[in-house]
Amino acid sequence: MSATTPRSHIAIAMIIRMAILNLRFKRFRSFITILGITIGIGSIFLLVSFGLGLQQLVQSQIIGNESINTVDITPANSRLLTLTSDNLEQVRAIAHVTDVSGVFIGASKVTIDGSAADLVAYGIDPLYMKLSNIDLIVGEELNQDTADEIIVNSSFLESAGIGDQDSALNKEVELALVSPEGAEKMKKLRIVGVVDSGAGSEVFVATEVFKQAGIETYTQAKAVVDERDSIADVRRSVESLGYETTSPIDTIDQVNEVFRFFNVVLIGLGSIGMVIAVLGMLNTLTVSLLERTKEIALMIAIGARPKDMRRLFTVEAIILSLIGGTIGIVLAVLLGLGVDLVLNQAARDRGVVDGFSLFAYPPLLILSALLAMILIGIVVSFVPARRAARINPIDALRQE
Amino acid sequence: MTSGKPLIQVHNVSKSFKLLGGETIEVLHNVDFEILDGSFTIIYGPSGSGKSTLLNAIMGLDEPTSGTVTYEGRDLYEMDPNERAYFRAFTMGMVQQTNNWVKSLTVQENVALPLHFVGINRSAALIEAKNSLHRIGLDNYAGKYPGVLSGGEQQRVAMARALVNNPAYIVADEPTGNLDSKNSDDLINLLRYLNKELKRTIVLVTHNLEYLSIGDKLLLIEDGRVTEMKGKDISTTATHMLNDMKKRIEGWAKG
């Protein structure tokens, strides 16, 4: 037996085992401590997942399913600097730009069933339609080549007195655009689709329709960027060409800015419970240390290293905080799912179709919560563990 | 019989404590002795004589104020604390008059602790602990918790714990204190067996005058000073002390 010693000190697995046995031995106390930690970490986790969930909800409401990796380009002063096809090619050549789409926006007069209305007409291509999140209610997309089709929005049909959107399809309208020279260019077009965009009357035609009317300069353009991190670079490059840029990222950044603050407030609120839980844990460890002074002294006397005793206390604290943390996170997730379920049911009863979630549980949040629990265990046990390591072994031998 | 080589050398050891008032008391005065490898040494002394302090010093638990304690020529207090911990776990076995336990562990697990402290794996340590309990005749106690045992049972379990590492050097501080005479004799006989047959070095502290003469060497400690006796001197002294005690008891009985 005495001949072979694979290791000259106690295995960490044995320390963990001793820690677990001791926590089990003091079942009720361990349970109360874990309960405190469960409540503490659970409330923080619930509040933070609520903050993150709300943030995601707000973002998705603002952005919709519009791609956020885009840059909107407008000429700063359209008299000095125009946005032509050549300019679009310049933008397309910028690194990280994967696609560019120009749009014409012009005043127009549209005549349908003999009555004429002044409204805004858009000359768009399929990419722009997709990026701008213009969804067809009925009908189909514009044929870019024939340039004899038009898409109208529902407000237009309402003001024209056409209630049934399906019946509007294939109706003929007359579009009058004003050319740069001031001449009105007329064109007969067929309605192929209806969209639900905008508050006022709008119509959409192929870019070719504007070009045929002699209009060569785009009102604005959208550039698609390959990844979010490149957006700032692309904007700088576009701005160096003399254009102004905006991006959905700007809005998102503002939202995030607000939520950063909001989340800090939530963490602060949740931390009150956590502080109490941590104090409870500190109390448990301190009482345990006082109770076990002789036990620790004995172990040092019969060959435990002082640092093994320090580890024993640290391990006990980590076990307490990890168990409490895990249960707290699980309960918080369940509670969040329950609240979502109830709210979604209530929303459906009131006719809301889209499901939503008020809580978000990114894996990083769960991971960092667990890491934080380990860290809390180490920090809280620091003083009791250090005191355990300093216990004098002759205390174990002293007789009362 | 001893091999004649010194195992423990206590050289010029003094120990003093500072009291709360600032006063210093010296508990050990320039103590000097050797414990030979394979010897059986008895330490006898009244309480308050500095006996515990001396024992702590030779177990590597309490550093003397001055002087040296060496084991196989190595100064125990020059070792780093981890090395000294290894010495206590692996080289030495100790039994106290009152023993402490890790209350959340069973008797068997408690007995296995010194093995865990030197890194022996759990299953091997538990088997060895079982064997050690068996040698003391405590097989039935393995699964119990130490808290439910009587003082005498605890003493014997502590013996099993002290022997689990098969230590070369055993320090027993009044191990028979809580035992009846039958169990006391059994335990002393076990120590004698370990010494005679297995060549273990034994240091036994006892108040029992009957046991004084079983050692090769007797260390009488009084007021922090040690008097060393060997061979015939021991039995002479023991007889003398026994007679002395008898007289005193007779004296009390008369008056």
Please describe what this structure looks like.
Helices cover 54% and strands 19% of the residues of chain A. Chain A is α+β, with helices and mostly antiparallel strands. Chain A has two domains: 12-63 and 254-396, no CATH class; 70-246, no CATH class. A six-stranded mixed barrel of chain A has the order 2-3-8-5-7-6. In chain A, helix 1 crosses helix 11 (306-349). Chain A is elongated, with a radius of gyration of 34 Å. Mean pLDDT of chain A is 87; it is low at 1-6. Chain B has 255 residues and is α/β, with parallel strands linked by helices. Chain B has a single domain, classed as P-loop containing nucleotide triphosphate hydrolases (Rossmann fold, 3-Layer(aba) Sandwich), CATH 3.40.50. Helices cover 38% and strands 25% of the residues of chain B. Chain B has helices spanning 51-58, 81-91, 107-117, 122-135, 151-163, 181-196, 231-254; strands spanning 6-18, 24-36, 40-44, 66-71, 74-75, 92-95, 169-173, 201-205, 217-222, 225-230. In chain B, the strands form two sheets. In chain B, strands 6-7-8-3-9-10 form a six-stranded mixed β-sheet, with helices on both faces. In chain B, helix 6 (181-196) links the parallel strand 7 (169-173) and strand 8. In chain B, helix 4 packs across helix 5. The longest helix of chain B has 24 residues, at 231-254. The model of chain B has no long low-confidence stretch (mean pLDDT 90). Classes of the chains: A alpha+beta (400), B alpha/beta (255). At the A-B interface, helix 1, helix 10 and helix 11 of A face helix 2 and helix 3 of B.
